[in-house]
């Protein structure tokens, strides 16, 4: 079913970025229809959860104390070496609403302890590479050819994971935020790693070509690390649609797995693929992965194993909502999509009564969530008015999400 365009929907969140970085945009306009934290009171613990609590763009907040006032994504991951938590942002600024100095992408803030009950919101306690001074993690130039065949506008993180003493970020290098119809606008995708827990980063030599390098709609554009299970690292991937303008996306998702040792060595050709072959689904290296899910166009997505259940969250670009699914195993049949947070509270009926956040995207599952029926989601918001004045560029926390 095709969902009609919503009149209050903003253009792509990247409209302000495509002309170049360091753009100081209007900082004095209040965001329309912004979400707020759940009320505190005597009604019970359930109401203490965070329901749209902003984690940046608030005067005096913990993000600005670490040098980041506005940014998006906030992809959470577990820092297993010391039990802390990391949050990886995309293009970020030192001032609210994309004002002040532009920091770059990706950027990381950290937290010593996460409250999975939702009783207290996420609070950042240090940044990378230096506490109190958030900086770009990767060493590359924006709006320049860094030796990969054409211009890189920005490198956008899609997911982060740490295991075996090494931290990994899978990213997409963006060529344009405004691709023609049917094109994804990417240059390539890659994996970077850090052996000092996020201070310095190195790029694996192999990259997956994107749109600009002749592989438009590559299914390796965006990854989500579901976790290590039964001796394998399970990875879901899809076409790049980080600008929400890839009309050829189609919502297709695929699944592959690889041993953690092979992944660490950069031997990505050792992956095994979940594919439909010879009349049945099976793990194989004989063919590439088969599409396991498809439908509406999908932006950012996240898959995590929470308490033995595989949980998926994603932005449904056509439905203008954050949806979730679950499965008992990564290679099992997934449940039907469940609408959780909506961009508008009107039509269709599946949006009625849901938490509303205009201009939403992202929706990353926190791996420290309380349980498979009580997820924490990190949701992004970006919007601009008719004069292209930015009114929100931030991440928000939602707890108690039952997928």
List keywords for this structure.
five-stranded antiparallel sheet; globular; 28 strands; about 400 residues; about 0% helix; disordered N terminus; mainly beta
Model description:
The structure is a single chain. The chain has 403 residues and is mostly beta strands. Helix content is 2%, strand content 40%. The protein has helices at residues 62-65, 260-264, and strands at residues 51-54, 75-79, 84-89, 92-95, 99-104, 107-111, 126-127, 129-130, 133-134, 144-145, 151-152, 154-163, 166-174, 186-194, 202-203, 208-209, 222-229, 232-238, 253-258, 272-277, 280-284, 298-306, 309-316, 321-327, 338-342, 360-365, 375-384, 390-401.
Q: Secondary structure elements and their pairing?
A:
Layout: E1 51-54, H1 62-65, E2 75-79, E3 84-89, E4 92-95, E5 99-104, E6 107-111, E7 126-127, E8 129-130, E9 133-134, E10 144-145, E11 151-152, E12 154-163, E13 166-174, E14 186-194, E15 202-203, E16 208-209, E17 222-229, E18 232-238, E19 253-258, H2 260-264, E20 272-277, E21 280-284, E22 298-306, E23 309-316, E24 321-327, E25 338-342, E26 360-365, E27 375-384, E28 390-401
Antiparallel strand pairs: 1-28, 2-3, 3-6, 4-5, 6-7, 8-9, 10-11, 12-13, 13-14, 14-15, 14-16, 17-18, 18-19, 19-20, 20-21, 22-23, 23-24, 24-25, 26-27, 27-28
Write a short abstract of this structure.
By secondary structure, the protein is mostly beta strands. It is built from two helices and 28 strands.
């Amino acid at each position: 079913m095709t969902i009609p365009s919503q009149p209050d929907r903003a253009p792509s969140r990247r409209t302000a970025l495509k002309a170049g970085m360091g753009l100081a945009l209007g900082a004095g306009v209040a965001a329309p229809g912004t979400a707020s934290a759940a009320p505190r009171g005597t009604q019970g613990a359930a109401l203490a959860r965070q329901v749209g609590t902003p984690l940046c763009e608030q005067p005096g907040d913990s993000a600005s104390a670490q040098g980041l006032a506005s940014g998006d994504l906030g992809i959470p991951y577990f820092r297993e070496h010391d039990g802390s938590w990391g949050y990886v942002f995309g293009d970020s600024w030192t001032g609210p609403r994309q004002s002040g100095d532009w920091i770059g992408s990706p950027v990381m803030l950290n937290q010593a302890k996460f409250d999975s009950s939702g009783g207290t919101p996420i609070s950042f306690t240090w940044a990378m590479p230096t506490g109190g001074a958030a900086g770009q993690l990767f060493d590359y130039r924006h709006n320049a050819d860094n030796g990969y065949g054409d211009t890189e506008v920005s490198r956008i993180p899609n997911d982060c994971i740490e295991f075996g003493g090494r931290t990994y970020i899978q990213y997409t290098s963006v060529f344009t935020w405004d691709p023609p119809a049917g094109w994804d606008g990417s240059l390539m995708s890659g994996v970077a790693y850090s052996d000092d827990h996020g201070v310095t980063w190195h790029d694996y030599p192999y990259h997956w070509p994107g749109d600009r390098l002749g592989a438009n709609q590559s299914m390796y554009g965006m990854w989500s690390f579901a976790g290590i299970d039964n001796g394998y690292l399970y990875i879901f991937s899809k076409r790049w649609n980080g600008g929400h303008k890839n009309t050829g996306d189609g919502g297709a998702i695929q699944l592959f797995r690889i041993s953690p040792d092979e992944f660490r060595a950069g031997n990505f050709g050792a992956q095994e693929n979940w594919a439909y072959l010879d009349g049945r689904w099976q793990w194989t290296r004989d063919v590439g992965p088969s599409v396991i899910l498809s439908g509406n166009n999908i932006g950012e997505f996240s898959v995590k194993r929470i308490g033995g259940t595989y949980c998926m969250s994603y932005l449904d670009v056509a439905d203008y909502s954050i949806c979730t699914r679950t499965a008992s195993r990564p290679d099992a049949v997934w449940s039907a999509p469940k609408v959780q947070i909506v961009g508008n509270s009107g039509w269709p009926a599946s949006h009625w009564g849901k938490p509303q956040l205009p201009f939403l995207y992202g929706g990353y599952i926190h791996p420290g969530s309380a349980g498979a029926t009580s997820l924490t989601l990190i949701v992004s918001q970006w919007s601009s008015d008719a004069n292209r004045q930015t009114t929100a560029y931030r991440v928000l926390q939602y707890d108690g999400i039952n997928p």
